[in-house]
Task: structure prediction
Amino acid sequence: MDRIILHCDLNSFYASVELLSYPHLRELPVAVCGDPSARHGVILAKNELAKALGVRTGEAIWQARGKAPKLVLLAAHYDKYRYYSELAGEIYRRYTDLVEPFGIDESWLDVTGTIHLFGGDPKVLADRLREDMKRELGLTISVGVSFNKVFAKLGSDYKKPDGVTVITRENYRTLVWPLPASDLLFVGRASAEVLAKHRIRTIGDLAAADREELLRLLGKAGGQLQDYAAGNEHSPVRPAGTEPRPKSVGNGLTFRRDLRGDEEVRAGVRMLAERVAVRLRRHGMKCTTVQVSLRSPELKDVNRQKGTGGPTNVSREIARCATELIGDSWSRGAPIRAITITAAGLLPEDEAGDQIDLFAPGSTEKREKQEKLERTMDRLRDRYGRQAVRFASNQTRVAREIRGSRM
Result:
């Protein structure tokens, strides 16, 4: 017997929550954005009217206003979004205890074991969820119903807003295979471009492609994506709190002003590396790779990565790798609008001890001493607050100037 998986997507979530407070704006193009005065002038969400005018999530405010001069901008309120996300989760859990959040506005529900309690028809249950959400929260959801998580998500994307799409073993070739390959979960822009160069443009093309070629083009991920396209995805719906350990940990920042010169760049890198290291330690993980993403004032991105020389969750080593990557890939003195540092190639701490590279910069003893110091700082912050203790290098004038930016 096939599973019955629902994917529920709260439509235009941030914008819809904001419009609960401004119902008179419902017939206007509306977007939620960060604080332009703090250089967070990026569109975070938009309603359907703004979307119809070409406004896109992630673009700069000036770009959006070029498409929609009458666009109404509203500030973001993350506490509100978390609150409504929790309320939506409570509604989902009336129908099953297998509810897996996928970000703040999406969730998978496995109703295989409970569908008989609600009439036995998945489409009827999906419609019931939509009505619950509208009546109780004033929000709409799109729901995909299928026999696995990947196709259920494709279903929720198929009819927006406020629609239901049922994808079965009988109809998925008709509904799913003509869609662009980029619509498939985990097919990013870079992967889609690689596939397109080899005439793999639709999900059906991906399902029918030569598997060896896909493995050559995309590595192990190529085979996994082909399985997804063919309907062979079997991962369970995991309730909140039972998610697997992260595959990467990152932190990014758009600065109040462009960083110029080595001192300012180093200050920004140290600040981000410290946050990444703290999060690694809280997850009980160490990284073996550091990735850096840089953005210019013209919104051009550069992405680079390198090995750490041994598993680490020490901020100084992460900062050293990031600084070296920037030095090798960015013109010295050229302005930097934003930096993201990501720790990847993660290992549990208890598995990382035997994998130290003896030829890596710094001795094992020195690394352990630094890690012990940073763990002590973690405990002080947990007890007295995040600002209780800092490295002296993060207390310079330049560091104080850029620390006002949001992290």
Remarks:
- Residues 354-362 have pLDDT under 50 and may be disordered.
- The radius of gyration is 23 Å.
